[in-house]
Amino acid sequence: MINHEITILANKIESHYPKEIRKFLSISKKSRSEQLYKLIVSAKNEDQLERGLLFKKIFAKKYSEKNDYLWRNEIRLLKEELEIFLIQKEHEHFSKNNQAYNDWLLMHAFDRLKFSVGMDEKYEVLLKEKDNYASYAFVLDACLLQLNNLLHKVPDLRKRMNEYPALIKASKLVLNDMVSAYSAKLNMQSSYYNWIAYNHKLEQREDLLLNEYHIYLEKNPISNFYNHFAQSFTISSDPNSFEKQFFI
What we know:
Elements: H1 5-16, H2 18-26, H3 31-42, H4 51-59, H5 68-97, H6 99-113, H7 116-128, H8 130-133, H9 136-153, H10 157-199, H11 221-231
């Protein structure tokens, strides 16, 4: 068990969040998960992590191949609890350190409530502060939420048509920002790789993404779904009309 992923994960969590994880497990109402966690992180040597010993302490009976399913299930449950804990910790971290994350969450909350005034407010903040926040993915998602919300926000079709162009333009600009930002992050990793290769007299190099980035749009499950959906609205007079059109 010393090299088992649950042992490694539990010990890493214990070293970072000893008080928080114990409090979390104590209120999770999964006593066996809490007991197994404590047994793992308090083990002094490999013998104390022996599967049969841990199994007997948790289930009060001897381990066998016949009841191995109990052991595997307990490992699964503990892993789920630890992952839930880490999700909460990451949420706390992002919420404390990234206002764009909070505004993005509120955009989704307001969208669920169909609270257009709140969505307008957070959208404007995210768009205005997009470079300061440097969280373009959150801003882009907020742009798309705002576009979706037009149907509920502006029931009058003629007025709604006047709203689309500015929102679509803003979305495209943020998309460019996001691609540029992630390209730069990738450039940093590529440059580091190239630096190592150079200093070790290796020939391989990775090209950097500079000034322009041209791609073929991938046909992945998400793009396929939305492109097929978009085809249902297309009756043409171009712009860039789909070759095939579906009507609903």
